[in-house]
Amino acid sequence: MNHLYNAFLQVGKCALDLIASLPRSCPPHGKLRKLASGQQEVWRQLRRELVGGTDQRPVMWLHAASLGEYGVARPIARALHAQGRWRIVVTFFSPTGYEALKGKYAEEADHVFYLPLDTRAQACAFLDLVRPAKALFIISEFWPNYLAELKRRAVPTFLVSALISPKAPFFRWYGGVFRRALEAFTHFAVLNEASATRLGSLGHTNVTVTGDPLFDNAAAVAAAPWRDAVVERFAGGQCVFVAGSVEGRKDLDLVCTLANRHRDVRFLIVPHEISAENLRSLKYRLAGKACCYSECTEATDFAGVQTLIVDFVGALARLYRYGTWAYVGGGFTPRLHSVIEPVAYGLPVAFGPRTGRKVTPGEMERAGIGRTVRSAAELDRWFVQLAGHPARREQVRQAALAYTRRNIGATKEIMRIISKAQS
Length: 423
Hints:
- This protein is an alpha/beta fold.
- The protein folds into two domains: 2-212 and 409-420, 3-Layer(aba) Sandwich (Rossmann fold), CATH 3.40.50; 220-406, Glycogen Phosphorylase B (Rossmann fold), CATH 3.40.50.2000.
- It has helices spanning 2-21, 31-50, 67-83, 95-101, 120-130, 144-152, 176-182, 193-201, 214-223, 229-235, 248-261, 276-285, 316-319, 340-343, 360-367, 376-387, 390-406, 410-420; strands at residues 59-64, 87-92, 111-114, 132-138, 157-162, 187-190, 207-209, 240-246, 266-271, 289-292, 305-309, 325-328, 349-351, 370-372.
- Strands 3-2-1-4-5-6-7 form a seven-stranded parallel β-sheet, sandwiched between helices. A seven-stranded parallel β-sheet has the order 10-11-9-8-12-13-14, sandwiched between helices.
- Helix 3 crosses helix 9 and helix 11 packs across helix 16.
- The radius of gyration is 22 Å and the shape is globular.
- The two termini are 31 Å apart.
């Protein structure tokens, strides 16, 4: 299976190299093109920033798949950065995370790079350049060649905010390569007892149930002063429905149907992927007048505008402060986005049904602050039940804020685990 995995990675690398070599006028465009270009540029960037520098602090390497997963890493990165003794290197595989963070990370990192594809040669070359003293992987980042090489070099390595599902590849007939990858981790910081039990069944007892650092990050963002003059002018003191990380046809159908049924309510829609095609599709589906954030200024007259489409990335966690209700996208795929961010502001939140990779949606439903919806009709019923009852919305708000407070503190426990390991 190792040979098959490595062969697959080599094919993927050749495909990305080919895409990057094509003229920019040729397809594919968008995220795949950015990924291919980033995979080529990363080696020049690594050498430019890391070779011959005078900073002799030990390197702490944090890897997250994309921007959503980086919400887990951010409070840890900030705590480590505040200590002053670490040189923080953050990597992403997805362009969404890299593009959002590059040039904007002074409070939490010293360097931000794409992660080169997990071939044996590239894993060795990357680690030779970065030379991490410790490494943190976020949620479900299992890169066998990187992990094998970290283990060979005796680098303390941690898996943070892990949720181990019974459907995870470790429990499948083909999972040998991933089971071996788990042996590289010095310690597992998991979200719940079920994950600890499943790791135990694989022979791993170096496990601590820490909870989710996303609560620490979301609470810190919610508490920090921040305003956006354009969004404030659009909201105008009215109730606003925030649809965050809207992704795919199903999310689009639910959100646009709700907006079209309730033309008197203002909608703030934040697509997960910003592209001309996605923006055109959104505007086409909306019956009320819609405009993009990039078309607006602080002086824009929003009279008659029902929907503001946010066509830039990186601000969603802050934009929820303008909301009254929220819908979080990705729940009709395996990648439900952060439902914690809106709850940190006390917002009731709805989401699609594919929640198996997260603990929080089920907890939120049991607490009465979250709702799984499978259709536009279900989303509409949930919305109407809350829209006509301000007292009920206040009850949910208080329950959501209390739920957030109860779950703060994972970062402190993870920092303790990291500091105990000798590099």
